[in-house]
Amino acid sequence: MTTLTTPFAEQESRQTKWVLWFAWVLAIASAGIGAYGLFLRFVLGHAGANYGSYVPWGLWIAAYIALIGASAGAFAFAAVIFTLRKLRYYSLARLAILLAFGAFAAGMTNVWLDLGHPLRFWKLMLQTSFTSIMGWMSWFYVIYGLILVVGLFITRNGVIPKFMERYSWISFFFAIVFAGAEGALFGVVGARALWESGLTPILFLVEAGLFGLGLVAIGGFIFGCLEKQSARMLSVVMLIFLGLLLLFKWAEYTTALYASVPAKVEPIMTILTGPFWWVFWFFHLGLGILLPALLLLFGRGNIWSTGIAGGLIAAMSLASKLNLVLPALAQEELKGLAHAFTGPGLVFAYFPSLMEWLVWIGTLGLGGLIVLIGFHIFNISAPTYSGSSNR
Amino acid sequence: MSDTIVPKENLLLRMQEDIRRALEKPEGERRWGMVIDTRKCVGCHACTISCVAENKLPPGVVYRPVLDQEIGTYPNVTRRFMPRPCMQCEKPPCVPVCPVNATYIRPDGIVAIDYEQCIGCRYCITACPYSARTFDLGHTYTEGTPEQEVYELLPNYEYGVEHPRKPGSEESPIGNARKCHFCLHRLEQGQLPMCVTTCIGIANYFGDLNDRESLVAEMAAQPNAIVLKEELGTKPKVFYLI
Lengths: 391, 242
Ligand code: SF4
Ligand code: SF4
Prior knowledge:
The complex is a heterodimer of chains A (391) and B (242).
Chain A: E1 2-3, H1 7-44, H2 59-83, H3 90-114, H4 122-126, H5 133-154, E2 159-160, H6 162-187, H7 199-222, H8 228-259, H9 262-273, H10 277-299, H11 303-315, H12 317-329, H13 337-340, H14 354-377, E3 385-386
Parallel strand pairs in A: 2-3
Antiparallel strand pairs in A: 1-3
Helix pairs in contact in A: 1-14, 2-3, 2-6, 2-7, 2-12, 3-5, 3-7, 3-14, 5-6, 6-7, 7-8, 7-11, 8-10, 8-11, 9-10, 9-12, 10-11, 10-12
Chain B: H1 11-23, E1 32-37, H2 46-54, E2 66-73, E3 76-83, H3 94-97, E4 103-105, E5 111-113, H4 123-127, E6 134-135, E7 177-178, H5 184-187, H6 194-198, E8 204-208, H7 215-220, E9 225-226, E10 238-241
Parallel strand pairs in B: 1-10
Antiparallel strand pairs in B: 1-8, 2-3, 4-5, 6-7, 9-10
The complex binds iron/sulfur cluster (2 copies).
The site of one iron/sulfur cluster has 14 residues of chain B, from loops.
């Protein structure tokens, strides 16, 4: 077996301690806030939410796809590291699996609470309709969750088993299918011109890669497992993904605007110039793409700039997904619908309610706590070994 | 002189008779459909309200809003009223997306929702190109007032099943996707959908599209009959006379 140096120990004395302390406080506070949100969710039901009939999906669904995408990306990163046997990054890859699990748990909590009948979730598995991508996704989630848990357990002593190194490429392809199918869930909805595109699943893949790397970068920073080389590697890969994302967004928006088909132009104009224009320009483009790109370009593998850039990318994933989910729904499908009949949920404008915000914060706290506690349970800071004895 | 006056046909009675004939056929041979004459609709919203009353719809749930559309620019402007029930599409995009088979096409062509099966994911709502589905968030008309009125708790009989309403719970139909079902519970008793019965201008024709003798089949074959968003290929069974 080959012992690998772990970067945790040497880092811990430096910035880690207070950053970690801050992360604990933030996660506990968020979970506490979320507990009140959860209380409201169960007392008020969906009557306390601002999504409804014309905008049936809101903050929770955007958060769910952002978190699941980031989870798939982080998981794919780990799978690539093990497949390529990049021993130097094994610790980071183990952390990536834990982060993937935390993001997955947070994402699933969001979507679970979004269901009209959360206690009927089992029907998704036991009475699945396989004509529905959502039906397929439910099974993917079960398999994915199991892979993550098993992966964390079998590596908890710090040894990456040989079979895991050998077959991680399967996990990598699974992550691609998984993240792509998430995009297909939207891409196949013909009623929403903004979603219905072959580019949608591809965009989801690119975003999953980017958000996952962002998560690994900020996670590595918080737990003190980023060092010069891994920070540089992550910076380069994140820059490539940022470039790809910009390219795809540019291609999608410009072709649609040029083609001038109203059903597609209207939601895009809502994104660019609508009442929430700042979500795109300030949060998504500014804080989620341009600022991280500058930090990565000029930081040149600096641990701080890589960690912060990763954090920005991961956090702003929500802005990107909000802009995918909401503007497509906030369009009158038939002229005159907005004023034909009024009532709660029969509006084309949407801003999350207090309950929605609180629950969302709580799910992030939950994910954070899972990662912080899991870090100890699964011995992520322990030295990592390769299980391949011939190395 | 009185011989020359042609007695007006009672369209409601004729449609009632059409339904009776259809109900004698096996379910799979019926194809319920509706034709709405926009030239006769005066935009009174009686159909919307009667539907709300018939199906005990809570705030935020509507099956048949009447769209008020202004067409053209001054001085060539027309105003058109367009009631919008569920189109009961022959190729409904809402059906294949449902992850638990809660929404399905019945043999008679009505797209139904199994309230006890629906998990409330709302994927079908996003997939309907006509916004015909609404989500029951669990609101009541008297929320925020000192007393819960009894009428809020009355059961509805959609799909022929009694559904009591329990505000504050997540018992169906609260938490479900809901939509027009052509008043299936009435139809199966030989009655016309409530909106057709209530329409003050008899602007709605209803019956079995497979029955060539029926009024609805006759109207759907008019040259000025159109369907909404025909280009999507959803094949609605609701037609509009323009
Ligand atoms: S109008 Fe909408 S809800 Fe009704 S059958 Fe068609 S797609 Fe489904
Ligand atoms: S809301 Fe209900 S009927 Fe609609 S797709 Fe989800 S489970 Fe099916």
